[in-house]
Amino acid sequence: MTENLDLAFLVHINLQEENLEVDDKLRTSKFPVFSQQLPVVRLQDTRNPMFSICFEYGCHARNEIQTSATMESRKRQLTSLDSQIPETKRLKEEIKENVDDEDSNDSFENFCTTATKNPSEKKISPRARSQRITLEELDDDDSFDAPICSKPLPVFTKSTKLESGVDGFPCLFDEDNVIYLTVKVVDKREEGCLDLECVDKNGKTRLVYLQDRWSQLDIEVGNTINLIAPEKWGDDDYIANDTKGVVILNPNALVPCTAVASSLFCSRKVILNDKFKFGNASNKAMLLGTIMHEIFQTAITSKKRPLVEDNLLQIWNTQAPKYAEELVALSFTPSCLDVELKPYFSIICDWINKHYPLSNSFFAKREPLPSKSELLEVYDIEENIWDSKLGLKGKVDVTMRTKSKKGMESLELKTGKSNSSSEHSGQVLLYCMMQSSRYEQPIGFGNILYLKDGISRCVTPRAAELSGILQQRNMLSVFFEDPTISRLPPPRQESRFCDKCDHKVMCSFYQRAEENYGKSSKALKEFAENEMAHLDQTHIDYVSKWIRWISAEWKCERDRMQTQNKDLWLKTIPERVEEGTCMQELTPISEEMSNSQRIVISFSRKSSSNPSPFRPGDVCLLSNKKNVAIAFTVIDHVSDEIIRVTSDKIVKLRYEAPFHLDKNRLRSVLVDLLPPNIVDTSGFNISPAVKKIIVKAKLNNEQRRAIIHALSTEDYMIVEGLPGSGKTTLISVLIQCLLATNKKVLLTAFTHSAVDNILGKLTKEVSPEMILRLGSSSTIKEEIRKMTLKAKLESESSDNYYASVRRVMKTSVLENPVVACTCHHVPRELLFSYRHFDVVIVDEASMVLEPLLLPVLATSRKFVLVGDCKQLTPLVVSRKAKQEGAEVSTMEKLQKAHSNVVVSLTSQYRMNREISMLSSKLFYENRLLCGNEAVSRSSLDRTGDYSVPEGLDEHIRKTLSGYISDSCIFLDTQSSLNHSMQCNDEDGGGMSNDGEAKIISELCKRFIQCGVKPSEIGVMSAYRKQVDHIKNVVQNDTLEVNTIDSYQGREKRVIIWSLTWTDNSSKKSELLRDERRINVAITRARQKIVVVGCKKSAESIPVLYRFSQMLTNNLTIPH
């Protein structure tokens, strides 16, 4: 996903032959830590990803009850026909390929052989015992980056016979062959058959009888299935067995083809990798493979023939800048890289010149592919295919149009030595089926080229293998469909395969803590116990706790999503347009390459009264009318006439950051809560340079004390900074002091704005050359972008780009004393796999969920947490997880455990005394104090630029009053008497209030007329829907309207707060019941806060009742 998921939501663009549509298809969560598939930080060796936990939450209960009346009735009708039902036949096709890899071969061959074996002959019996299973329906949430398909899809004419191209296997492009069903009753028969009562799209009941391999499916009530060309029985029922029909379980869960293929070796590893995204450690083999793929793909699409090695070297020199950081990080010198690349160049040139010479002369005759077909055209590179019919998704290395009856063929590139791996064959078989479905052609051949030795081979589809690999996909879909990790496939029983596995610790944890070794052999149990020997029961309980909490959170996150990927094929374009998630009737204008190596595509749109639902930065899914997911792009520009998107073709490598320094110490601090080493600061020697910095900054006594504690700590310290107490200034000064003592500093925060605000202050005293800001330029303030790696590289001028890169990488990445980024960026940044810091500073630490904080803290032995636990906490949706403590941040946990490491900043320099008093009394036991008299007396009327006109109504005059006594105003809308002021519950959980929006629009105009600049006015609401509505009503781009949560750490001269919710709503206002959110809302204003809402409704909420009782200025809006 993108780096800043809290604002972006996934958009979908449909390209038709003449017109295009754009479609918002999957709102990414405001809580990135839950919306992404989260990697793992191991407790043993604390690795790159966001957090270290494996997740399981409950099992599905199964209760045996009687079969439904519908199924019993239908079976009675069939009893007399029992003898007529066709018997299943044994398929005798076997895998004929010799496999060099013994283990891989056994896995695939045994699987396919087992799948084709026919149990004892059986017939449908209406009297069989049944078992009903209930299960909540699950949805899938996937995303990936993808390149643009540069050509329109070819149009194939369907043959009248619609043959599949493979004997014994159904046609995949005949839509009449596919029946989409939802399972209502599952009847598991004693003799091995599986009977289902289902409902089709039209609500009609269908009975489905599954035999042979399909009877082994783990189907539960609520699952969906696609039946492809089953045998029809009567008018309404179907039979699927080894000789007739294919069953796709959970077709809306698009399982990656690579995952299906890899599962032939170890299904458990595939699921762990999907949930935790370990990835391999940084290695040259991975980088070399990626480079060779791109060189081959660029070479085969070039017009140079015959290809020679110098041509490939020229291609590589053009591509090298993309991999600059990885090359330097892995110590790849140019000479070393040339040695590694050279053996591949001759093989690539030879293969392309033989099979794709681009000439019609006799001497340039094309040799046939391994499939015996002739390559006519390279149709696409890295083609993305999402197939909801087969429940698969994948990226084909090279899509080739061939001179054969079967049309398109795939070429899969492998950088290793040739072998007949079942995983490789299985992956290509899946591509063959997806291409048949997409291009409406018979199932064709697939080709594999091994770049290491130049061997290429053909993969020939056979019915038994196609059904077998689809059955493997069905098995995996059960786990991919589950948003949590409530169960895992059984592990491989041979422990000799496990030692080098990235997931061995998490797999071992599951065997011990969740499965009690019930699925493990003796040897595997011994291996798992050895892997877990370094953890005691306290650590096991810690992991189990987060398993429970994050699993619950993932499930809640799935349930609250209004749209899902499956809507792309289950809903029509007009339906999505009606929902406000689709923009249609777009026509492509241009496509060009930007300087940053991104493709920029512009579309014209028909004028519409409806505003665009998309904003710059939103992630978009590009599709054509028939096929989904041609590419993922990003909205770059939106206007009434034009929409522009960009796509990044650069392959982004995932690197694991092995945070291996002081792992045990970090575990003892966070899990065991051992006390930190306390240093007596009374005798701490401060250097003259540090003294000079502190004096120049004019810090108060609390801030000075915090600086001394941070410099002297041996483990960690906590700064509790109350609202407006100068936390940003403190952190800036602390970094200056650390630099004066030659320390390397990592600065992180929960939000980009917090990081940039600190850097803005820091660069007034420290040269930007000493700072490296990591992150996407689009999420970084413009004045800070000069500190990014991209800007530093662009400022270099040299003929030798690689030398320039090495110089910048050495000075910026390896030696810059200050590195700054958000907490979310640390797990996926290559830099942190090889760089260690003396101190880590975390701003907004009270907002960071502990699993997200782990990889940040693992980059240094010392850390400083700065925040306020009485303001916003980590966002947790699951009520159960929240009640059990998931929203307790690391900062709050350590603050309660060891209060002696906490330094509080209670003097604030933001709010006048009237506003400060509200927060101080409500939330801080009167500890929040004004820092000086000027702050205390600050008000609108004392600035000289503010004037309220004469002759206004009393409630308007009082609302606009600049006197300090009128700093806090409650405008009561009396919604029970004035129905236009009542809130509107939106479908999907949104809430808006048109009456309040109109009042706020008028107030903004009045304040501006009185002398307040639009940029000094802040409008807020707890509800995103109300924020969007107010923006449409106010129509002033210079005036900020945002959620309360987005205003965290911000301040404005005037704040107008829309409560939005009224008690006519059927929903409880959970957002307004959070005292910490109310504290944030109150403490954003410097001189004036106006609350607009229904007082009676507000006083039904305890914290708002106390708030309203403290206000002396409660005004009523006349009706």
Automatic annotation (TrEMBL):
GO terms for biological process: DNA repair; DNA replication. Keywords: 4Fe-4S, ATP-binding, DNA damage, DNA repair, DNA replication, DNA-binding, Endonuclease, Helicase, Hydrolase, Iron, Iron-sulfur, Metal-binding, Multifunctional enzyme, Nuclease, Nucleotide-binding, Nucleus. InterPro entries: Coronavir_polyprotein_1ab (IPR050534), DNA2/NAM7-like_C (IPR041679), DNA2/NAM7_AAA_11 (IPR041677), DNA_replication_fac_Dna2_N (IPR014808), Helicase_ATP-bd (IPR014001), P-loop_NTPase (IPR027417), PDDEXK-like_dom_sf (IPR011604), SF1_C_Upf1 (IPR047187). This is DNA replication ATP-dependent helicase/nuclease DNA2. GO terms for molecular function: 4 iron, 4 sulfur cluster binding; 5'-3' DNA helicase activity; ATP binding; ATP hydrolysis activity; DNA binding; endonuclease activity; metal ion binding. SUPFAM superfamilies: P-loop containing nucleoside triphosphate hydrolases (SSF52540). It catalyses: ATP + H2O = ADP + phosphate + H(+). Belongs to the DNA2/NAM7 helicase family. It is an enzyme of class 3 (hydrolase). It comes from Caenorhabditis latens. It is found in: Nucleus. It comes from the Eukaryota. It holds the Pfam family AAA_12. Its EC number is 3.6.4.12. Gene3D superfamilies: 3.90.320.10, P-loop containing nucleotide triphosphate hydrolases (3.40.50.300). One of its GO terms (cellular component) is cytoplasm. Residues 695-904 form the Helicase ATP-binding domain. The lineage of its organism: Eukaryota, Metazoa, Ecdysozoa, Nematoda, Chromadorea. CDD domains: SF1_C_Upf1. Its cofactor is [4Fe-4S] cluster.
